[in-house]
Amino acid sequence: MTTLRVRSATASVLTILLTVAALVSAAPASAAPTATAPAGFTAAELVGPYASDVPPTGTYVPVLDGFDDLRRNHPGVIAKNLRTVQQINASATPAQRADAIAINYDDRLVSLSSALGDRLGAAFRGLLASGKMPKVSALAAGDTARAGLPLGTTLIEKEIYDNPRPFVVAPRSITRSDRPGGHLYAELVNSGSYPSGHTNMGYWKAALLAYWLPELGPQIIARAGDIGRSRIVLGVHYPLDVMGGRIMAQDIIAARLNDPAFARLIDAAGVQLRSQLTAAVGEPLSTFISRDRQYLTTQQAVTSHRTDLTYGFDVLRPGLKNSIPPSAAALLRSRFPRLTDAQRLDILRRTAIRSGYPLDLAGPNGGWVRIDLAAAYAARP
């Protein structure tokens, strides 16, 4: 990483910090809740600042930096990275292409809502659109969602790694798919590919949504995997970009949940979400979910997501030693509320893939790529 790139990244950090401060400080103070307008967060609650707003090193490079090693030392992995894009892009069905286009333009929270089931997903989208879940919207809706800002956008990391996208590297072998009058490829041609921003946002929003609705955790996490794969279908990202986006997303939400002040916001939004959904469907959520048409069964969700963890890459370093980061245990607190964090961490370790796949790192910054959150949500204590 050159000095110029580090300086540029530092400037980006300052720009994002100023942007988020302006966005959240401009939010109006919450009105008193009414039957039609539930209370949102106050501007002071959104501004914070919070300890989890900025990672310890200022960027997420420490947990993502397995990519530089692959570029320097493992040309075979990089070559397979492109071949996999070409294969997935070429074999995509019309339905997969249509879903990928919709995901590109929709808010990731809306894209994730299909995982809730036919009727519950529709109820969720209706509540979101009508402003009846303002706390959920503040934390997880749109590109300026507070849980992801100020440093969860991938803008800094993309600038640092500066990796050209598949459709730029191999234009003749990538089929482009966009809506009429769309601007997808023109917007992305000069931006770096690693890590995937759509995937990052899809996974951290999925981790929050699963935290709020743990009974549908495997399905929600599997849908996040679909969001990542959609970027490969379009030929705008590689598998390693998607894997990197997932790594970063898990680190972001684990940090939020381990920050007691911010975790209070997450819990308050979850209470509002469940209350509004229950009122909308007119019966306990567990009953409604049992009668809804599922996006996937739990087993289907776990199986689907497992394939998205490695994209067919082989283990690169069989002897690599690391463990699941202890902070990740917080991801399962709502799923296993009676367990300790040590017991939740054990579930993450039991359901994880083995160490040594591409992007896995030794030491305290490693282990993130190994987490299989869909399997962990489906696990028994």
Order of helices and strands: HHHHHHHHHHHHHHHHHHHH
The tally of helices reads: 20
Distance between termini?
43 Å
CATH superfamily: Phosphatidic acid phosphatase type 2/haloperoxidase
Overall form: globular
Radius of gyration: 20 Å
CATH class: Mainly Alpha
Structural category is mainly alpha
The CATH architecture can be named as Up-down Bundle
Tally of distinct domains: 1
Q: Sheet with the most strands?
A: none
Pick out the low-confidence regions: 1-15, 25-32
Secondary structure: helix percent: 55-70%
GO molecular function, one term: acid phosphatase activity
Family: Belongs to the class A bacterial acid phosphatase family.
EC number: 3.1.3.2
Signal peptide: 1-31
